[in-house]
Amino acid sequence: MTDPARIDVHQHLVPPDRSRAMADRATVLGWPAPAWDVQSAIAMKDRRSIATGLLSFPAPVAARDAPAAARDGARSVNEYTAEVVKDRPDRIGHFAVLPLPDVEAALEEAAHALDELNADGLMVLSNVHGTYLGDPAFDPLWAELDSRGAVVLVHPTAPPVTPIPGLPSPLVDFPYDTARTALHLALNGVPGRYPRIKMILPHAGGFLPYAAHRFAVAARLHPDSTPEGLLSELRRFYFDTAISAGPAALPSLLAFAAPGHVLYGSDFPMLPEEWATGFDTGLDDYPHWEPEQLHAVNRGNAELLIPRLARP
Fold first, then answer.
1. Cα–chain center distance at 34
2. Pairing of the two strands 127-128 and 131-132
3. 122 near 148, Cβ under 8 Å?
4. Rounded Cα gap, residues 222 and 97, in angstroms
5. Which of 49, 110, 152, 223 is the most exposed place for a label (fewest CB within 10 A)?
6. pLDDT tens digits, residue range 157-215?
């Protein structure tokens, strides 16, 4: 049976002033342009038994060489999202976007979003114009977010490689980039040095669960690391189920993820609703759930990350 109270940690919005830019980006990525408004998002939640969706803006807010535009863009997106949340805080939450690679601006925006806008967490892209998240330049940001025990959604974006014609980047390249940045973070010890950050990897971590033991061999190239230690770092991540509850991916995810570290995700509206029903069914019909495990994935694990959503 479908859980009527899902918490969707991977849901998006498209502010009206960014709809044209998002449509243009979708064309470049070889993907359908997303359409979004509050009413249709609420209706989708009702059809799919989603009690609350945590919204994020899943694209760069400005070009690499436009730091002022990135600051202004992040502030605009975050304030718009906060206003959307105000009307229905029971149905809508908020992961604020940050204007990276400007770390000082990102620190300022994180404080504004968490302290003034009551954001439930933050969102960063898997690479920042080609720089991956384990780069030491980002350490001041991780230190601050660790001090706050922040929830951080690491949303995939296109990697700095030439796309293959006819193979949409969101389907083929995004999982690769998620796994790439997760391994980069782990090899640089970020999860272990900042253990109070709860980092969520969308789409079951890309290729990470399936290839984790292969990736762990990379530790042998680093004298201060071991495969066992690297696997431990990788298992600190949380994972969502968006586009990933298939009969091959779901068992791999559940075999790898630490207990309590799997969360429900829809990726609406980036994944059109009519394309997603099979993945919801894959969760509902999976035959090997332990008692209460499906409810934990649908809701319970997210309640622990975001206590305001906990039901009595």
1. 17
2. antiparallel
3. no
4. 33
5. 223
6. 999 989 898 999 999 999 999 999 999 999 999 999 999 999 999 999 999 999 999 99
